[in-house]
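Q: Sequence in, structure out?
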Amino acid sequence: MQNPPPGPPPGGDQPDYPPQGGQPQGYPPPGQQPPGYTPPGQQPPAYPPQGYQQQQPYQAAGGVDKKTGAILSYLLGWITGIVFLFVGKNDPDVKYHAAQSTIFFGGMTVIFWLLYSLGAVIGLLFVLSWLVFILSIVGWVFCLVRANGYGGARFQLPIVGEWITPYVEQLANAV
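A: Exactly. Output:
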C-alpha cells in the first residue's frame, strides 16, 4: 500500500491546521517526546521491557527440539530409542518416537538374530533373516524421512503399526 502524496487532498476542502485544540493528531503535547524517542547522548531503554516473555519453540530436556529429538530417536535404532526415552522425557512426542524405535528395531534385531542363528541348522531361515534385515533398513529410512517431514509429529509404522502402537504407548507413558 502506497502513502498518499504530500499536500492537500485534490479537489477537496483543505483541513484546518492545526486542528481545533492547537495540536495535530498523532503528535505528543508540547514539551513531551513521542514514545520510543531517545534524546541524543542517552542510552535507549533495555528491551524487552519488564514483564515481557518471549515465546520460544518447545525444547525437550538437553535443548533438543521436537523434530531433532524424533530424528535422533531413530538414528541408531533401538540404541538411540532407549537413550531418548530418558533424554526427551519432558516431550510426549519425542518419548513416543523413542518408544516406537525401541520396540520396532529391538524386535527386528531379536528376530534377525534368532533366524540367523537357526539358519545354520535350517538354510531357509538364513535367507529369511536377511529379508528381515532388509525390511529393517527400509523401516529405518521410512522412520527418518517421516520424522523429518512431519516435524516430529507422531506417526504409525505401516503394516506393523497397529500391532505395536499399544506397546509403544505403554512404554512411552511408563518412563
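The mean pLDDT is 79.
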